[in-house]
Amino acid sequence: MSFKCPLCMRIFSQRFAYTQHAQKCLKNVEVEVEEDDDNNDSEKYSSEMDTRSNLSSEYENDKVEVDDDNDVQNMSFDSIGSAISEMSLEDSNFENILDSSEEPEIFEEPKNLNTKTCTEFPNDAYKDLMLLVTKYKINNKGGNEIIRFFNKHSNLTESPLPKNIEQGRAFMNNMKFSNLEFSKVLITKHEDKDYFLYYQNLIQCIKNILTVPDITQNFALSYENYEYNRESIYSEQNTGKWWKTTQESLPTGSKLLSIILYSDATTTDTLGKSQLHPIYITLGNIPIWRRNKQDAKQLLGYLPILEAANKDLVRDTFHKSLRHLLEPIILLKDELMMKCVNILKMIHKDLFAHNFFWDLPNINIYLATVPDRMHHLDLGLFRYQIIFTCDILKSQHVNGNKLVEEVDRRLAAIPRFPGIKIFSNGLQSIARLTASEYRSLMKVMIFVIDNLYDENNNEVDNFVNNDDLTKLYEYWNEMYILSRYEEFSESDLEKFNDAIHRWAWMFVKAFKFVSPSNLKLPKLHSWVYHIIDSIRSYGAINGYTTETYESLHKYFVKIPYQISNKKDVEPQLLQTIKRQAISIRMSQHSVNPAKTPRTCKFSARLFEFSLQDANTFFNEKKDSVDNKMQTGFARFISCLDSYLDLLDGFTIIVWFSDIAISMDSEESNDYISDKGLCYGQALLLAEVLTDPPLNLALIQWYDFKSKRNPYLYGCPHLKLIELYNFVAIESIHGVVHIVP
């Protein structure tokens, strides 16, 4: 591999020689990045080399501009909500981070280089190339091949593309947008190591959010007294009691801007050896459905992770970082037309150390730290419930290990269904399960536990009978479903509170003898005693769910980390994020053509035959198809006859599928239904080539197993019966998961 200086075009065969050359070349020469004569440049810069010893030391100097404190003080809220029409064009250092995971290369430009900056690409071809490379994460080698291919076949006298991808990345790094600039500040020193906070200005982040298209639609600026049947309804944050109380305390004409911060450390690799601690920001004024989308959030920065056993020092570093991040609000609090008085922190760490929130007016940080469903339930209490269940099965029963093996067998036997994780290896990997996988477990564990073991015939102490354990999972499901309500009336809150305490009572009864901490679980206390008050204060739990924040880790941490050189990664991540943001910004101008709606169309054909030859065809194929299709063949003619009342002149195209069906409203009155739905198993999908064609599904129906008790644990309890019909595919309500 060779290394070419992007300024003087001199080529070096070794990285070390190139690195030495680049430092002096970039430090002492003011030049625009353009094509120069190779020989002249080589002579010009041949004597300007230093003795830097290794590549990693390139990152010792600041890679991200550090704003002067006065810059923060001089920013105001005057332009919040308006489009950012002018971008600042300032000199800055920048670096080129290659996307090759095998051998990343680094190009660094020092601060004193007067390189020409801009906000647009030189031409459309240049722009399209760099957007393509950035979007699909093409490394330098692949990108350079694209450039060579284009130049070879374009027959242009002058190429519109950069000389190489390295130069293109450097150009993007040097593009100036005021809303894409990060800074860094030294927070602390520990054992001769500097710990920096990398961040965006908080006010600029708010402006960035407000410039997202459609984000200010239905933007809440005042309290809404939402009632139904004379009951208060809590949904959006501005329907909660906190908003009402705070709004009443504001000066006349002032408006409330609710800031929500989310911070959680995440691993950068699969082994978990390296971590980063991003912090994100969004606004409580945005409706929940819109706020839970990725573009309604901004990366505020990366908090330093202190490598120290001293917890007080770690907490002090954390709070120093927060003080610096929130300093723009503190400095401008007397000038703001929109008074920022609430800081909701969803941080899953211990915050009960001395912290600067105590010094801020109108903020009770303990009340403002709202419980998060994903960490409290999915990854918290339900995880405990699974672990304690396994402990009970192992310790309280003679055949404990066999019972755990039976749980694994039942989990593996559950039919596959789109969106549900099938645990083919049982619960062996429970320590590594994601929140989504725990939610899959919630849907099926009650059927796994049901009728798992007998009564206490061996007189085991502290025995937990199977019925109680099954009820525990039933109560959990009831509570969890209620937690996902988009709005709560006072009567809903009473029902929710009852469900929480009913589950908690059974949880304590079942597990108090197997919990190592005697169930002294902070998440249990927070959920049981504080979630109802939190809803009354700040609205529905869905407004504070962190699923979308967790997905941001992939975009802002994991993917940029993978294409870095794994050393001093924060500056590299920020440059990668900047290029991604530029790519998204530039791509928004492209209009995607609207998709033309299409009628039902089958994607794959298995068989085609004339109806008059159907019986002969079925006999020929019966030995080469599975049992369900054989049943479909056997019932095909009679069911089609019932549906059409004639049999001549049709050609049938047959497919196979395995789905569940619902009936239309008129026919459902003739059957026992589940709120107007009936269930069946599709044996065949068929198209009758009439004019227009008929799209049909051959169904074998389910019926309720018991008319007296049609539901089991809140689910329809069904049995498959010998009743078959063709129905129009358009009458299918959707796919359901039927667990044996």
Automatic annotation (TrEMBL):
Pfam families: Plavaka
Region described as Disordered: spans on this chain: 33-61
Comp. bias intervals (Basic and acidic residues): 41-51
Superkingdom of origin organism: Eukaryota
InterPro entries linked: Plavaka
Protein's UniProt name: C2H2-type domain-containing protein
